Amino acid sequence: MTPADLAPHPEGGRFREVFRSARTLRGAGPAGGDRSACTHIYFHLAAGESSRWHRVTSDEVWNLYRGALRLWVWDEGEEDGPISIDLTADEGRFCHVVPAGVWQAAEPLSGETLVGCTVAPGFDFADFTMLHEGDPAADRLSILHADLARLLAPAGSKD
User: Fold this and answer.
1) Is 49:13 a contact under the CB 8 Å cutoff?
2) pLDDT in tens, 32-55
3) What is the DSSP string of 41-75?
4) Helix, strand, or coil (residue 39)
């Protein structure tokens, strides 16, 4: 797997979907439509790149394949602000589950990182929301953890 095998992702980095379940779940999609039971992508970040703040409406499992990754998660209902989870071979931590609807962002700890992201029910861009500069939640994030504002999507950019 090389970066050339992947397409740009709106949140940053590059990706390729490698699995979409043929099995569908009735009523699990937007407006009660059907949804694939599960999807899986390869997701690559080069040194210095980041996955900007975003959320999806399904649970997402991040699996580390290469490199080391800092995953930021933020449940807006929590008063303490975002927390970080480092996925590294050195610490023996290779996966983390981000619950549905929780904001997430990521960045390599050093060098490039390759992860797999499994979403169930399956991912659909209709359920994907980026956190943009100027959004009320972005303003709150900037107050709670000012240095993480660098991971916000620019105001007016497309999801």
Assistant:
1) yes
2) 778 999 999 999 999 999 999 999
3) EEEEE-TT--EEEEE-SSEEEEEEEES-EEEEEE-
4) strand
Neighbours of 71 (CB within 10 A): 20
And the tokens for 8? Answer: 């740009």
Structure tokens at 83: 């927390």
The single residue listed with the structure tokens 């900007």 is 52
Number of Cβ atoms within 10 Å of the Cβ of 149: 15
Q: What is the pLDDT of residues 54-92, one digit of tens each?
A: 999 999 999 999 999 999 999 998 878 899 999 999 999
What tokens were used for 97?
């589950």
What is the amino acid identity at position 38?
A: C
At 24 the three-state DSSP class reads strand
